[in-house]
Specification:
Number of helices: 15
Distance between the termini: 63 Å
Radius of gyration: 22 Å
Helix content: 25-40%
Strand order of the largest sheet: 13-12-9-10-11-14-21-19
Number of strands: 22
Length: about 450
């Protein structure tokens, strides 16, 4: 087992990893930017090293700075969490070169799966259904029009190296294709330094279903069931459920087996997630693979009892999985709500500043909160807006919703804006509770109505 692990991240996920390391009796090293000098993860770790200025590219996403901290501290492994360096194949390769274990898959797999078009090709060869689309990267609008003629509209233009909704545009008609293609191209260039795009048909309406897998370095692969991530805005998840409320057992078995088969086909190791779109007839199509820990991993932990972060660390240390597929049992229903520092009434403008008072629900069976916030903390403006995750787990779906409503009611954050009102409205909505939703429901159906209703409540003008 490792003696010391550097946590190459910040916020709630850094706190989550540090806690897992302490429970495994492994020393932890936190890294922090100048803006995070008083962040919670720096207080909880055994050591803390400043690695650069506030800007993420100069600190948390700087491979040289992170590796230098690992070398100086004597860490024998690095856990990247999610975001930042977690899916950077060049960083994983540097770790391999420096003989520091990267807690995740090897650099080649990250490289292969990180390019979405390449991942589509790999999955097609492995027999996993993929969304109809172009077979190669699309270099210009002329090629985009040719593909559009073959697969039809609506279609999605995506950055090959993208994730989290970045470099992605929907073209619903031929008239929208050129401007959407240009926007996707420009955004992809600014974020990833290239214009590598691919095009696929839009499956609509569809559920966004992902399967959690664990794979060790001895050829063992298991799945931990699926999560429904259909409640999202701008391709960013807002609320997630485990298991999927309405997926049939037949479809559940097929999609889970497809994920395991895909992981085996590419020789995958560590924790990973394979994401699918599922249409109304329960046909499913591979969308992408995330070669890292997911934000929403806690709800899978709640229904399976498996600590995914500890499993990641043990797999990276060379241990075989102690669990077989037969050992995995699914119990109850779990929900995760992402509390973001943003103002939904002002175009989701990110919020930052001094937290004057903080009350988060931390009592009661089946309720879990993961955060790096604390009272009298100043939240910096330089990073992702997610401030906390509120998770409930109960024997039934109805009870999980009831507990979530109670938990959200107790949230009070003074000093910054949050999306708490949006979350409360969503978990109370009858369509959400009945699972009458799809991946575009929040944007197309809920948001216009909710913003109008809240505007009327605020101004009294209809």
């Amino acid at each position: 087992m490792f003696q010391k692990v550097l946590v190459a991240n910040r916020g709630e996920i850094a706190v989550r990893i540090i806690r897992a390391l302490r429970e495994l009796n492994i020393l932890s090293v936190a890294v922090y930017s100048e803006a995070d000098r008083y962040a919670l993860h720096t207080e909880l770790a055994d050591e803390a090293i400043c690695i650069g200025p506030a800007k993420g590219l100069d600190s948390y996403a700087n491979p040289v700075a992170v590796l230098s901290a690992a070398i100086v501290s004597g860490a024998d492994a690095i856990h990247p969490g999610y975001g930042f360096l977690s899916e950077r194949s060049d960083f994983a390769a540097l770790c391999e070169e420096m003989k520091i274990k990267f807690i995740g898959p090897n650099s080649q797999i990250i490289r292969d799966m990180g390019n979405k078009q390449n991942a589509r090709t790999t999955m097609r060869q492995a027999g996993v259904p993929i969304v109809p689309g172009g077979k190669d990267l699309v270099k210009n609008i002329e090629e985009a029009r040719q593909i559009a003629e073959e697969i039809g509209f609506p279609l999605m233009i995506k950055a090959a190296d993208g994730g989290g909704g970045k470099g992605m545009r929907l073209a619903s008609t031929p008239e929208e294709l050129a401007p959407m293609f240009e926007q996707a191209q420009n955004e992809t260039q600014s974020i990833y330094g290239n214009q590598h795009l691919y095009i696929e048909r839009t499956i609509y309406p569809a559920k966004h279903i992902e399967v959690q897998i664990l794979a060790d370095e001895h050829g063992n692969v298991i799945h931990l069931g699926e999560r429904d991530c259909s409640l999202q805005r701008n391709n960013q998840k807002v609320i997630e459920f485990a298991p999927s409320p309405t997926l049939s057992e037949t479809a559940r078995e097929k999609i889970s087996q497809a994920a395991v088969d895909a992981a085996k086909a590419i020789g995958y190791t560590n924790a990973g997630t394979i994401e699918f779109l599922v249409d109304e007839e329960e046909h499913f199509y591979f969308m992408e693979m995330n070669t890292r820990l997911q934000v929403e991993h806690p709800i899978t932990e709640m229904i399976t009892g498996v600590d995914i972060v500890k499993a990641q660390i043990e797999i990276a240390a060379g241990k075989p999985l102690e669990l077989t597929q037969e050992d995995i049992h699914f119990n109850g229903f779990a929900i995760e709500c992402r509390l973001n520092a943003e103002d939904p009434h002002n175009n989701f403008q990110p919020s930052s500043g001094h937290i004057e008072r903080l009350i988060l629900p931390n009592g009661g069976m089946g309720l879990r909160v993961e955060t790096a916030l604390y009272s009298d903390y100043t939240l910096p403006p330089f990073y992702d807006s997610m401030a906390a995750k509120i998770i409930t787990h109960q024997p039934t779906r109805e009870e999980a919703f009831q507990l979530m409503e109670r938990g959200l009611y107790e949230v009070s954050v003074a000093g910054i804006s949050t999306n708490i009102d949006l979350l409360e409205a969503l978990v109370r909505h009858p369509d959400v509770q009945a699972d009458n939703i799809h991946a575009k429901w929040l944007e197309e159906t809920f948001m216009p109505e909710w913003l109008n209703e809240t505007a009327v409540e605020t101004t009294g003008i209809e």
